[in-house]
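Schema walkthrough. Field components (list of strings):
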Amino acid sequence: MVKSKSFITDNERVLAHPYIHDCIVYDIETDGLDVDTANCKFFGAYSYKYQKYYIMHQDEKEQIQKIMGEHRIHVGFNNKWFDGPILENHNNNIDLTYKIVFDCLAVLYDMERHRPNRESLIEFNGKTLAEQLDNRKLKTIAEVLGFPVSKGDIDYRIFKQDSWTPGELNEIYKYLFLDVDITRRLFEFYLTYFDNFREYVDDDNIKKLNYIRSSAGSFSYSAFCHMAKLPFEFEDDPLKKLVKPENHGGFVLAPQVKYAEGTMVYFDFSSLYPFIYFQCNLFSHGSNGDTDWNGDNFFDVKGNYKTDKRGKVESLLRDIYYKRAAYKKVKDPRQLALKIMMNSLYGISGSPIFKSLFDPLTPGDCTSIGRKHISYAKEVFEDHGIKVIYGDTDSCFIQLPEGMSVADAQLIADQIVKDLQSHMPFPDEGFKFKVDEVFHKLWLFGKKNYAGFDDHQQLTVKGLPIIKGDASLLGQLIFKQLKPLMLSRQDIKFDRHFIETIIDAEIHKDLTLVGRVYNVRKPGDYKSVSSLHCQIAQHFGEGLHLLIPNKTLGAVGRSKKYATVDECKSLTVSDLILDKTWNELEPFIK
DNA sequence: TTAGGGGATAACTG
DNA sequence: GAACAGTTATCCCCTAA
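Field assembly_structure (string):
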């Protein structure tokens, strides 16, 4: 059976969107970067209303105002913080009030809160965008998504001029058109990728394209309110917003060994928190002390929950789980929205702003029940002579003893589930404690820090400094070089001398490799003015900065100095401070 | 001068 | 416009020896 949807091309789907004709994609070229004083020299746009491209000059402000005024939704790249404010400043005086700002950059990453948004949700060619993007420039994003991208950049000094030769104008128009076109493609990618999210929210959300722009938590809240017919409202009371429910979170078992080989099985309670919610009815507080569930003298919970009937939110959550499981099985992309709803409900229930789903007892009881799950599993495994060598929240690594098979361990896991469910008011047959992966080598460096090789000879690295976004460029480069060797040897450890040689060769080629990218907030956002990040913000402004730790040069730093790429030119190898890089590589040294 | 604790910060795991 | 807790590493600041 061919699904009817497969006859719709992406572009048709974009054009079928109920509010597409309210959208305009635009980009501007300016004579400076200061949003308060920059002049808009050229304006380029694509209107879905008229299905036409436009290019306008700075003298055509009235036309710019007219075309922008005719569209309710303004799509751009970084237009929330750059293009929009510049058009509105006193030099340009374009009125953009009451418009919906659709910022293609903000869809991926929330610059204000320094938090990834949809970049960790969007999968493309088997990996998330967060994993594939080295930076968040429009061009980089376009390249990853396979859009045609022009080579090289225009010389921005051209926008300081006030008159241009026909040849220069031709170059500017071409450049502007391409930027608008890439932004348009990115916008259409989002519209297509998140199209099925519309199914779960109300029309107001769709009108504002909130189902694409908002955080995962906010989308889920909208969806739950809409589907469970709860009032869609937020907590306004500033005092109530600060309420912190008592919640001890997940249990993390410290690694019991530093290294293990043989058969290490990673067991995992699938969708632990969602299942706890609907198996224990945690959104439905009871008032009848006799029939209410209070942990059955097995789980440690503070609330009393109804046992006569599963609640509205719990039933909805259960439906979402099974619908998502069915979609996932046939690789239907509609699984994503449901997965997000499922996984963020716990977070929503612990956040007072999400008024209709917030509960002071529910999240703490959920994590308490969760901790009991993993501690009980550990107990039972150990009763069977199986060592539990590490665990985190909903999962654990066990080391199989001689003569025991993975299937034997699975039987024990099945019994663990039965035991746990015998104390729940609404046990559900879909709840599983199952094998997620089998490892044959495992290095446990600490809580949330480990590496290992699985049955498919693949390398897993969790939490180590080297995989973090603020790792030194040098560390990242060397790790990239070592990875194929690790895979072929099925070992992560190397001689110190070997790594020393590579480090030496690389830093002599390029000193700036020792640098790290610092992602800093506005200077005023810091509690501690003396902190390194605040110093960087004060000197270089908000955003991303590549700085090179060294002994002598640079305006920021105390025990260490931090030089810019320019300053770095007068440094020598002996000035550099390599301790961060060494620390990143330490786990890979014998 | 050094060692080490405490606080702030970023970025991760689940 | 708005998700949660637990954990690591890094760096600054301060105090004790």
